[in-house]
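User: Can you help me understand a structure? I only have the sequence.
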Amino acid sequence: MENENRSSLASWYIIHTYTTYEHRVCNDILKMVENNGLQDWIFNVTILEDEEIVEKNGKRKTVLRRRFPSYCFIKMIYSDHVYFMVTHIHGVTGFVGAGGKPEALTPEEVKRMGLEKITAEDLGIQVGDQVRIISGAFESYYGEVNKIDAANGTLEVVLSMFGKPTPIKLEFNQVEKA
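Assistant: Let's start by predicting it. Here is the structure, written out as tokens:
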């Protein structure tokens, strides 16, 4: 319970890494948290990746592509001690921010990047509501919610394209109530 209270004080930060070291840095941070008892300071470390289907030599294959190569995202409570521990991990070149001082991501940035799971209740959206798409190929379009899949964190939005209703599947973090 105490850890949940401290988690609400945490913010998301961006760590810059050597190229291709993203997974190694994340794993090393998780080991550091476990070995040094930093569970009350560092709550999550992740890399943003998307599945992509590629075709090579006539065969289709699903691969993970990093959305932000050379960057990891960390949810932590900032302190000089935690900053020192994280920046001394092999492969970390520093935090993103002015003058090397870490700058926390805004709640809007966290939402847009999909760093935290959003529920339908968080959005306050129900079937029949109008929404605005805030990221992806249909950014800035408006549509009506047709279905909500809370288990998968997705919803179906019907857009009017070329005068015809077109249903598209979106994640919760891609929309906001209009």
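Now, to help you interpret it: The chain is about 20% helix and 40% strand. The radius of gyration is 19 Å. Let me know which part you'd like to focus on.
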